[in-house]
Specification:
This protein is α+β, with helices and mostly antiparallel strands and about 425 residues long. The protein is built from 16 helices and 13 strands. The structure holds fe (ii) ion (FE2).
């Protein structure tokens, strides 16, 4: 293992050998567990295929507002089973369409000026405004609160989100595109990295039925190579209508079973030669290697501009290859991440990349470059952020409220210190 900036960079061959060594003697237990799992996932597949897009849990933003900012219990139960959900009507469609127009003006204006065509932009004024939209931030807090801390000792605050800067997708009508099934937030690290491996303890013990996908204990302490922030949910805000056959996302809505499936199958399948093991950037869920996940993928139900789609960081997903809609299929990637010292450290780095107009820190590690947006105009400023935006992005200290307990106050203070306040 090579250590670079205090993060491990795996030697792939050595990492696979080490993983295999770790599981020596446990093959029978894992295989029996896997066989039970396949039966269960086949059952899920039947349910998902019978229900279609309606299988994805959905609520209205007002359901959360009228429930004191929390996800209603019946929805929370479904999210815990599936690992994904849609909150409808979070931002006014007109507002979202205005932001999309600003993103396109930034694209086309800078393309004309510099001759450089960048479509995966992160620093368009329209995106910066969307990220700090107050109703959206309330949804992030509600989503983060679906995770839990069994010991009560973990340093995290669910309802004080921290912002991970990501890009957007504007896919014009009929435009090809799409993405095969995959999982983000790390690849081989899930088997190999000591702390990451602990998140799946029950699965390694042959007891996948007891796996808790929502335990934050280890997640907030994962110092990974190319995913330095804990993203509780990946997510996007719809900037257009989207739905079946309109070039949008497909999700594998069985969080516990599908996670156990890709983790166990990789270990027990004799077809998994070294070349087929994932690298560090994510897990490609190839149809030939992980057929059941691909068969469980379902396109989300119809969404409108301003709806918020969220999925667990372990959840398999893909993007439809066909886009037969007559309008663009567009999203702004805005995940939900809670406050924790790990995420505060990321904000401290991200502040710098933001002010350079560069890609976020994780993206720079992956792509080995700051990106062409550093030559674009306007370069983002601190003043582009509202008071709320400044907190989310690490430009202003977090504050405590009258209802915050001592533990929360201490974590807020610790995170503020990391950010230099
Ligand atoms: Fe992805």
């Amino acid at each position: 293992m090579v250590v670079h900036q205090n993060v491990p960079i795996w030697d792939q061959k050595a990492a696979i050998a080490d993983v295999k060594n770790t599981f020596v003697g446990k093959e029978d237990a894992l295989k029996q567990s896997y066989d039970r799992l396949v039966q269960e996932l086949l059952k899920k597949k039947g349910e998902i295929q019978a229900a279609g897009p309606a299988y994805i849990p959905t609520c209205n933003y007002q359901d959360i507002v009228s429930n004191n900012g929390k996800i209603p219990d019946d929805l929370a139960k479904r999210v815990h089973e599936t690992g994904c959900f849609i909150i409808k009507g979070v931002i006014d469609p007109e507002e979202v369409l205005a932001r999309k127009k600003e993103i396109q003006e930034y694209w086309y204006g800078n393309e004309e000026r510099t001759g450089n065509k960048v479509r995966a932009v992160q620093n368009a004024p329209g995106l910066i405004k969307l990220r700090q939209q107050p109703d959206l931030v309330k949804c992030m807090a509600a989503a983060n609160s679906l995770w839990h801390d069994p010991s009560g000792e973990t340093e995290w605050v669910a309802d004080k989100p921290m912002m991970y800067i990501d890009g957007c997708r504007i896919r014009l009508a009929g435009q090809p595109g799409g993405m095969p099934a995959h999982v983000d937030s790390g690849g081989i690290d899930r088997w190999h990295h000591q702390a990451y491996r602990k998140c799946y303890q029950k699965i390694w013990q042959g007891k996948w039925e007891e796996h808790d996908a929502w335990d934050v204990t280890e997640r907030v302490n994962l110092h990974l190579q190319c995913n330095k922030l804990f993203r509780a949910f990946q997510g996007w805000v719809a900037m257009s209508e989207a739905g079946v056959d309109k070039g949008t996302i497909r999700l594998c809505p069985a969080i516990k079973e599908q996670t156990a499936y890709y983790l166990l199958k990789t270990l027990v399948d004799p077809e998994m030669t070294e070349k087929k093991w994932p690298q560090v950037h994510g897990i490609p869920l190839r149809e030939d290697l992980y057929p059941l996940i691909n068969e469980c993928l379902v396109t989300i139900p119809d969404v409108q501009p301003g709806d918020y789609v969220l999925w667990h960081c372990d959840l398999g997903h893909s993007v439809e290859y066909t886009h037969n809609g007559d309008k663009d299929s567009s999203v702004a990637y805005i995940p939900a991440s809670p406050m924790c010292p790990l995420n505060a450290s990321y904000l401290a780095e991200q502040r710098t990349t933001y002010l350079e107009g560069a890609k976020g820190p994780d993206f720079q590690i992956r792509d080995h470059e700051k990106g062409l947006e550093t030559t674009y105009e306007p370069i983002p400023k601190e003043d582009d952020l509202s008071d709320l935006g400044k907190q989310l992005m690490g430009f202003a200290p977090y504050t405590v409220g009258p209802n915050d307990d001592e533990k929360t106050k201490n974590i807020v203070q610790k995170c503020n210190q990391i950010l230099g306040f």
